[in-house]
Amino acid sequence: MSSAASVITGRTPTVAAVGCGYWGKNIVRNFAELGALRAVSDADPDIAAKFSRQYNVPALSLPEIINDDAFEGVAFASPARLHVEHAGAALKAGKHVLVEKPMALSLPEGRALARLADQRGRILMVGHLLHYHPIVLKLLETIHSGRLGEVKHIHATRLNLGKVRMREDVIWSFALHDLSVILAIFDELPTRVSVEADAIINPRISDIATIHLKFPQGATARINVSWLNPYKEQRMSVIGSKAHAVFDDLTKWENKLAIFDHRIEERNGRPEAVKAVPIHVQVEEREPLREECAHFLHSIAAGTVPRTDTREALRVLAVLEAASQSLKKGEPVTPVAASDA
Question: Does the global pTM surpass 0.85?
Answer without folding.
Answer: yes
